[in-house]
Amino acid sequence: MISQLYIKNFKSLKEIDLEIRHLNLLTGLNGSGKSSLIQTLLLLRQSPEIGKGELKLDNPSNTLFDAGVAEDVYYQFGTDKEIVFRCVSEQHCLEWFFDCDVLSHPNRDVLRASADYSPEQLQQCNVFSSAFQYLSAERAGAQNAYPASVEVVKNQKSLGLSGEYTTHFLHVYGDYEVNEILHHPHARSNKLIHQTEAWLSELATGVRLKTEEISNEEVRLDFQFDTDQGITHKFKPKNVGLGLIYVLPVIVSLLSAEKDKLILIENPESHIHPRGQVELGKLFAAAAQSGVQLFIETHSDHILNGIRIATREKCIASENVISFYFKRFEEDNRSDITSILIDDKGKLHRKTAEGTVAKIPKGFFDEWTKSMLKLF
Q1: What is the pLDDT of residue 61?
Q2: Around 313, how many Cα atoms within 13 Å sit in the side-chain half-sphere?
Q3: Does residue 340 contact residue 323 with C-beta atoms inside 8 Å?
Q4: Are 298 and 26 within 8 A, CB to CB?
Q5: Domain 1-131+257-338 belongs to what topology?
Q6: I need a labelling partner for 30 at 20 to 30 A (CA). Which of 170, 186, 228, 349 fits?
Q7: What is the pLDDT of residues 119-149, one digit of tens each?
Q8: Angle at which helices 166-173 and 192-200 pack, to 10 degrees?
Q9: Quick check: 128 and 1 in contact, CB under 8 A?
């Protein structure tokens, strides 16, 4: 599990050194560097020769992230012609100093560093382990049928980059027993399919899921709903609302995750109403407390509040949670990141460089307060 992340001269991240915890919330204005932090992890993972010091920026055959070429990723006002990534885990420190002379070689799509890490050394960091899931902001929408893949679902135990294999995953692992800490109190059983239904029912009442294998290449997903008059007929995904479809991969990834798995999720709140976002925050907290490591990029104060409530209710230890608030300086276009902590009471605070407690910065999810002051 990652405990420290150091990045230098990558896009707007001129130089950052962050303490990483189980649950890491990335917040802040658009274009402030949140995605850039996630992209460093994606580039490291997708580079097949990273152990030998080769960082593949443009990799069409394995595109977790297509970064382009050197001049696209090097911090514009950098002076030392190198990009540095350092990833520290409990057992090991992995570090790369990539040569990046954009004046001489602006179009390089491979950056090189002096490094010699064995596969075993890389595997000690969950960025490179098989226990990895990335869900992009552009998730699979409503479809009459979803793709199936033995390689992705059975061999990699993945849902795909956009969650496109979630239906196949549920079809294969629906009877999987979910970790007790993640159990929803109103689920029909501890099986993955029933736990998924229960958490989805926080968004829409009485959700039931049905999967059916159409062929070796496709699986169908249908929704039903509990009512006072019995269970409804089946509904196709396009007839139940986009929120349920968008959040399904998020919920399944959390409920099926084993200890030490690394999950990166962009904008999990998309198309979800406020109460559902709060419950999603609680589920993030429970997953992190079970030993999963999460990086969540979000604009949702409701998700933050769900995590705060979970902390106050002792569903997660406060030392396992941290939020990073990103903003960008106009004078040199670099990201500035403030680490914000949650105490045992669910209250927010930040620590100064001297280690003292201080107030959270202006701009950190304070728009509601500003709006209320204008209205009342």
Answers
A1: 66
A2: 12
A3: yes
A4: yes
A5: Rossmann fold (3.40.50)
A6: 349
A7: 999 999 999 999 999 999 999 999 999 999 9
A8: 130
A9: no
Q: DSSP 3-state assignment of 110?
A: strand
DSSP helix, strand, coil percent of the chain (3-state; round to 5): 30, 30, 45
| 62 — pLDDT class (breaks 50, 70, 90) | low
Token representation of residue 265: 């999720």
- Let me know how long the chain is: 376
Is it the case that residue 60 has pLDDT exceeding 80? no
Provide the H-helix boundaries in the chain.
34-46, 70-73, 119-123, 166-173, 192-200, 242-255, 274-289, 301-312, 367-375
Is this model's pTM higher than 0.90 or not?
A: yes
The two three-digit tokens of residue 136, written as one number: 């992009």
Question: Between 342 and 63, whose confidence is greater?
Answer: 342
The span from the CA of 276 to the CA of 201, in Å, is: 9
CA proximity to 343, closest of 369, 304, 363, 317: 317
pLDDT single digits (tens) 63-113: 799 999 999 999 999 999 999 999 999 878 999 999 999 999 999 999 999
Q: 10 Å Cβ neighbour count for 150?
A: 11
At which residue do the structure tokens 């992009």 appear? 136
Tell me what the mean pLDDT of segment 320-327 comes to: 97
How is the chain split into domains, by residue range? 1-131+257-338, 135-249
Of 181, 202, 178, 200, the closest CA to residue 189 belongs to 178
Q: What span, in angstroms and rounded, lies between the C-alpha atoms of 139 and 25? A: 19
Which residues fall within 8 angstroms of residue 145, CB to CB, at 6 or more apart? 214, 218, 219, 220
The residues with which 342 forms a beta bridge, in sequence order, are: 348
DSSP result, 104-122: T-TT-SEEE------HHHH
Give the HSE-up count for residue 181: Cα atoms under 13 Å, Cβ half-sphere. 20
Q: Are 32 and 326 in contact (CB under 8 A)?
A: yes
As given in the structure block, the two tokens for residue 36 are: 């850039």
For 84, the token pair is 């540095």
CA-CA distance, 150 to 126, in Å (whole number)?
23
Residue 49's region, left for phi above 0, alpha for psi from -120 to 50, else beta, is alpha
Instruction: For residue 303, name the pLDDT band (cuts at 50, 70, 90).
Output: very high
**CA–CA gap between residue 205 and residue 227 (Å, rounded):** 9
Q: Are 283 and 292 in contact (CB under 8 A)?
A: no
